[in-house]
Specification:
The structure holds 2 protein chains of 2 kinds. Chain A has 4 helices and 18 strands. By secondary structure, chain A is mainly beta. The chains are: A mainly beta, B little secondary structure. At the A-B interface, loops of A face loops of B.
C-alpha cells in the first residue's frame, strides 16, 4: 500500500500545473524510494520525468511497486477542492482501483476526503541515456519564462546559441526577428538572477517554442532552471524541487537532413 | 525551420 503526506497541497497542485498541458494520463510509479512519473506528450516530441523522493514526504510508506494510473484532468478536478495550505495525504491499497486524497486544514478542524478512480495505463518506459552535455546553463526561471513568452510573439521556433560569452535566444518570423542575450554574470549580489554557463563546446539548437511554453508552467516550483544542451540531441530543462526531487523535460530538437 | 524530430528517435 501507499501512504504519503505533504505539508502543503499547493506543491501537488503546482506539479500538476507543470505537466497537465503536456500529458493527459500517466502512471505515478510508487515504490519505497518515492514517486516517479515518465510520460511523453501525444506527439512524442517531448518527455516529462518527475521524481518525488520518499524523504520529501512525512511520513512516506510504500512497501511494493505500485503503478497508479491517473487521468490528470480528473486529478486536477479533485485538487481544486484542496486549499493551498491544506495538509495533503494520498493513500492507495495494493489491489485497489482508487486513490484516496485527504485534505486537512492546518488547524485540523476541516477534513475532506475524495476518491479518484484509477485506470490501467500501458505506458512505454524510455531509456534516457546518461549524457555529458556540452553546455549547461543555469538561469532565473522567471527570465526563461519571459524570453519564451516574448519570442513566441515572433515565431513558433526558437534558436538557442551558447558560447562562453553568454546564451542567446532568437526567433525569426513574418513580422521580423528578435533576440535576447544573457551574459554570463560575474559577481552578482542576487544569486537567483545570475546566469552561469558551463561550456565544453559551443552549441546551436532549434526548438519548438510551444513546448518551452508548456515547460515554463513549472516556473512557480523553482526560482532557477537549468538548460543542458549538446548539438543534435534533446535539450534537458530541469526545475529542482527543494528537498524533494525534480521536474525534468526533454525536448527533441529540430534538425535538418 | 528544420523538421521536428521525435523524442523516441533519441531515447529507446
Amino acid at each position: 500500500m501507499l501512504e504519503a503526506r505533504l505539508p502543503q497541497a499547493k506543491l501537488l497542485k503546482s506539479l500538476l500545473e507543470a505537466i497537465k498541458e503536456l500529458v493527459v494520463e500517466c502512471n505515478f510509479d510508487c515504490n519505497d524510494s518515492g514517486i516517479a512519473v515518465q510520460a511523453m506528450d501525444s506527439s512524442h516530441v517531448a518527455l516529462v520525468a518527475l521524481l518525488l523522493r520518499a524523504d520529501g514526504f512525512d511520513p512516506y510508506r510504500c512497501d511494493r511497486n505500485l503503478p497508479l494510473g491517473i487521468n490528470l484532468t480528473s486529478l486536477n478536478k479533485i485538487l481544486k477542492c484542496a486549499g493551498n495550505e491544506d495538509i495533503l495525504t494520498i493513500k492507495a491499497s495494493d489491489d485497489g482501483d482508487v486513490l484516496n486524497l485527504v485534505f486537512e486544514s492546518k488547524d485540523s478542524d476541516r477534513i475532506s476526503e475524495y476518491e479518484l478512480k484509477l485506470m490501467d495505463i500501458d505506458s512505454e518506459h524510455l531509456g534516457i541515456p546518461d549524457t555529458q552535455y556540452d553546455a549547461v546553463v543555469s538561469m532565473s526561471s522567471g527570465e526563461f519564462q519571459r524570453i519564451c513568452r516574448d519570442l513566441s510573439q515572433i515565431s513558433d521556433s526558437i534558436v538557442i546559441d551558447v558560447t562562453k560569452e553568454g546564451i542567446k535566444f532568437s526567433a525569426s518570423g513574418e513580422v521580423g526577428n528578435g533576440s535576447v542575450t544573457l551574459k554570463q554574470s560575474g559577481s552578482v549580489d542576487r544569486e537567483d538572477e545570475a546566469t552561469t554557463i558551463e561550456l565544453q563546446q559551443a552549441v546551436s539548437l532549434t526548438f519548438s517554442l510551444k513546448y518551452f511554453q508548456y515547460f515554463t508552467k513549472a516556473t512557480p516550483l523553482s526560482s532557477r532552471v537549468v538548460l543542458s544542451m549538446s548539438n543534435d540531441v534533446p535539450i534537458l530543462v530541469e526545475y529542482k524541487l527543494d528537498n524533494l526531487g525534480y521536474v525534468r523535460y526533454y525536448l527533441a530538437p529540430k534538425i535538418g537532413d | 525551420p528544420p523538421p521536428q524530430r521525435s523524442i523516441t528517435s533519441f531515447f529507446k
